[in-house]
Amino acid sequence: MNKLKDNKIYKITKTVLNILVAAFLVLFLLVVCLQRFSGNKISILNYRMFTVASGSMVPKYEVGDVLISKEIDTNKIKVGETISYLGNKGDFKNKVITHEVIAIEEIDGKKAFHTKGLANIIEDPIVYEDQIYGVVIHRCIILSAIYKLIATEYGMLIIVIPILYIIGSELLSFLLDKEEKKRSTQKN
Q1: Which own/partner contact pairs does 20-27 have at CB distance under 8 Å and 24+ positions apart?
Q2: Which of 38, 8, 43, 133 is nearest to 83 (CA)?
Q3: Which of 11, 38, 69, 173 meets the CB 3.0–4.6 Å disulfide criterion with 42?
């Protein structure tokens, strides 16, 4: 009886962990897709997730790092903070840029931010408050590792196959348990 109880607890624990891992990975992929297809216009509870695309912020952030930024009142942004914003000029046009604030001033009654990548020599074009998505508050090490893995040639398969396996095994286990219960009630 005790062995049966231990086996049941093991199955329940395994199922819960598998569901949590699969849900986390699916949620991550959904958030990434949502932001990509919306042009980063949609935030989730005032948070956005961005991926570092260039080496302009090395050594603070590496290419492929996943950053979380939070929308805040632009009056609270300070020199030295890292912000994510939508570029609107030159090579920056329509790209999400994540750089450090090096100066703040007012131009024609509008708050203007001077930004620059840590590894860059030249300052970015002026950034106005309506371009800012938020202040970077966290670099997600686990999500960065997953993103870097997905970005490899076979990386997507390394993520998709385990997710499909977990979902398939849980579905099969559920169906087999349901069939076993059905048979046991028919015998009685």
Answers
A1: 21/166, 22/163, 22/166, 22/167, 22/170, 25/146, 25/159, 25/163, 26/163
A2: 133
A3: 38
55-67 confidence digits (pLDDT tens):
999 999 998 898 9
Amino acid 75: pLDDT = 92
Residue 124 has pLDDT above 70, yes or no: yes
| Residues in contact with 139: Cβ distance below 8 Å, sequence separation at least 6, in sequence order | 61, 65, 66, 67, 68
Q: Which residues contact 111 (CB under 8 A, 6 or more apart)?
A: 74, 75, 104, 105, 128, 129
Contact status, residue 50 vs residue 61, Cβ threshold 8 Å:
no
Q: Letter for the amino acid at 53?
A: A
For the chain, which domains are there?
2-173 (2.10.109.10)
Calculate mean pLDDT across residues 37-49. 73
Query: What is the reported pLDDT for 169?
Result: 80
